Structure formats: structure tokens, C-alpha cells
């Protein structure tokens, strides 16, 4: 079974017009009704930089409506982590850029300063009884500097594993990864993170996200981020467009017999509602078509068991 984390309420909305709190609640409820059990719900970052998510604390107060869902929030610094914990959310994702230029654009820090802050955040979260995941942004390419060194990403992961990070996720922030690079980077990172789940956060800027999912599957990756309708993009990375669409990923996996626990028809329904909220058509392929008629589930025999 593959575990899909829905990132639409955070990554998906950060570049859109600001939704009301009620619209966000409806979005989350529709996703949960479709079977989603892990949701990146918001981020505690500067409301000036990302005004669409300025209501993070108010939204967190509403999460009691869905007690069986694992909600997480993204932070980029110690201040955001403190605000998130004070609001009552203890599963945090700390994002660190793998290039100096993006680190400065995204968080106003050097990579070394970001790692130092992240180590403090991990300690803070653990003291609060929570979980801290580290997401390495620009893990494949930087819009300012070009290709990201595999060694640089591996070094960052090694530092955070030593600091006690609970999970690791690799971000293809500008959607330039290809299957061979996904395989190479995941394998390199695993040597620095024994026993850790390595997730993938894939953008579909160049229509390669699904091919990269397949590459990940073939080497045992089972944790993937996706955003309803394909919403999303990074405001601090020029050229970064939307994420892999949740409904497209679900259709792709289920048609191969890989269980997700998600309902495609329900995902399409909430995707349609979210499109009305943001005021434009979404990029998911299933926006324009239906799943294959009469398909039968294939066997999982081609997949390799997860190796960490």
C-alpha cells in the first residue's frame, strides 16, 4: 500500500487567492471523506510573505473535527515552530533548502544556519511530544544555481538524522527531476538515513512527476506528497508550478493494483469544489476525463519491498 499525503491545503493554496476559513474547512472535510488520512494543513510562516495562509492558527483550532487524521504544518524557522506548537499542532515539517541561493530567498538564512535552526526545532518538537519531519527543498535543481549536488543533499540528511529527525522527504521543488536522478538520490540518501522512511514531494512542472513516482516505487518508496487538482507551487522559486495531482496519482496507483485507500470519485468531487473556490480550472488530468472504464486491478508482484 502507498501512503499519499495531501498537501493541497498548504502547498496548493499558497499561491492562490485567499480562501475563507469555511472554504478551507470544506476542502479538508472533502479530502477526509475521500479517504485522505495524512494532510499538510497549513504553514506557520510570515503572513506578509504568504498571505493566503495567514489564518494558520485559526485553522488549527478546527482540526478537532477530524480526530483520526494525521495533520502536519510546515515551518521554516524557530519562530514559526514556536507559533505552531503554541497553536496546538505538534507534527511539524521543517523545510531546508539544499542551495545557498534558495535558502536565502526562502528563509533568509544560509544552508548552515538553516541546519542549525532545524536542529533546535527538532529538539523543541520532541520536548513537546511531537514529530518533526525534514523536507529538503531544491533537492534536484535550484532555479538560481542549477543542479543540486547529491552529496550536498546527503550531507543535509545526515545532519538531521543525527539530530533526531523522525522522517525525511525530498522535494523536487521546480519539477526538473527525472527517474534516473530520483533513483540515484534516494539511494544516496538512504545510506545516511538507515531505518528512515524517505518520501518524495514531486512537482509536475515538466510532466515528469508520474514517471518519477514509478521510479520511486521500483526502489521501494511508498510515501508520496500530492495536491488535489494539481494545485501548488513555490513563491520563492521562479518557474515552480503545480504539484502532482492527488486524483491522478490515485488513479495511476489503483489501476496498477497498488492500494491507496482513497476514493477517486470523491477526490474528483472535492477537486471540482476547490476549483470553484480558487476561481480557475485545475490541472489534473482527471479534471478532463474519467478513470479507465472496466479496468481490473493488476497484481503488486512487480514492486520491490521497501528498503530503508
TL;DR?
This protein is α/β, with parallel strands linked by helices and 308 residues long. The protein has 11 helices and 10 strands.
Name the helicity range: 25-40%
Order of helices and strands: EHHEHEHEHHEEEHEHEHEHH
- Mean pLDDT over the full residue set: 92
The number of distinct helices, counting runs of at least 4 residues, comes to 11
Radius of gyration equals: 18 Å
Q: Distance between termini?
A: 16 Å
Low-confidence stretches: 299-308
Largest sheet: 8 strands, parallel
Provide the structure class: alpha/beta
Strand-residue fraction?
15-25%
User: What's the total number of strands?
Assistant: 10
In what order do the strands lie side by side in the largest sheet?
Answer: 1-10-9-8-5-4-3-2
Assign an overall shape: globular
Write up this protein:
It is a single chain. Helix content is 39%, strand content 16%. The protein contains eleven helices and ten strands. The protein has helices at residues 8-12, 21-33, 56-60, 78-87, 100-107, 111-127, 150-163, 179-190, 209-218, 246-255, 264-278, and strands at 3-6, 38-44, 70-75, 91-97, 131-137, 141-142, 146-147, 167-172, 198-202, 223-226. The strands form two sheets. It has an eight-stranded parallel sheet with strand order 1-10-9-8-5-4-3-2. The chain has a two-stranded antiparallel ribbon with strand order 6-7. It is globular and about 50 Å long. The two termini are 16 Å apart.
